[in-house]
Design a protein that fits this description.
Layout (H helix, E strand, L loop, with lengths): L2 H11 L2 E5 L22 H13 L6 E6 L6 H52 L5 H43 L2 E6 L1
Helix pairs in contact: 3-4
Length: about 180
């Protein structure tokens, strides 16, 4: 590996994103009157973080929150750093669990659909002299296809969007949050 690739690799592993803040309240919801240690993060703040972090395909080593020097308070900053980390760790945990549940249900639905299709195949080999057997075949065959396609859709496509969200939360949960003056 030559010096140029080493330099590029070290730059990519030490990426940072910066966000300008006028006040600490920019990070939190305007509708939440609780203290900083309990307040909900602002949707605008989260949306801006998503926008900036998705522009970059690399891991983000540091999130720099830029504040005017005269407005900074170290004790409040420590509380905010903990809140931001907690938000992303919780989001990461809940999304990973939700994806696991969705995938489990999708596999179950697919297996039920395959079972219905197998049952339909078995019924179709029988002599269908009775009306209730023909009706049962008419019901199980499309139901089997429906369950298989729905399960496969959930397994492969519905979790894709959540997987992108999980990647975002995972990336941000690993990011070091620091305050800096401007």
């Amino acid at each position: 590996m030559d010096n140029t690739s080493k330099h590029i690799e070290s730059l990519e592993s030490n990426r940072q994103i910066s966000i300008w803040l006028d006040a600490y309240d920019d990070i939190f919801s305007d509708f939440d009157p609780r203290p900083y240690s309990e307040r909900i993060l602002s949707d605008d703040f989260i949306a801006e973080l998503k926008k900036v972090s998705r522009e970059e395909d690399f891991e983000i080593a540091e999130l720099r929150l830029l504040m005017p020097e005269k407005s900074r308070k170290q004790d409040i900053e420590q509380i905010i750093i903990k809140r931001v980390h907690l938000y992303f760790r919780k989001g990461n945990f809940h999304l990973a669990r939700r994806i696991k549940i969705i995938r489990g249900k999708a596999v179950l639905i697919t297996l039920v659909g395959m079972g219905l299709m197998f049952l339909s195949s078995y019924i179709s080999t029988m002599q269908l002299d009775k009306l209730y057997m023909r009706a049962f075949l008419v019901l199980t065959e499309p139901a089997g296809w429906f369950f298989v396609w729905t399960g496969m859709d959930d397994l492969f496509f519905s979790t894709r969007k959540r997987k992108e969200e999980l990647d975002y939360f995972s990336k941000m949960a690993k990011t070091k949050v620091v305050f800096a003056s401007f």
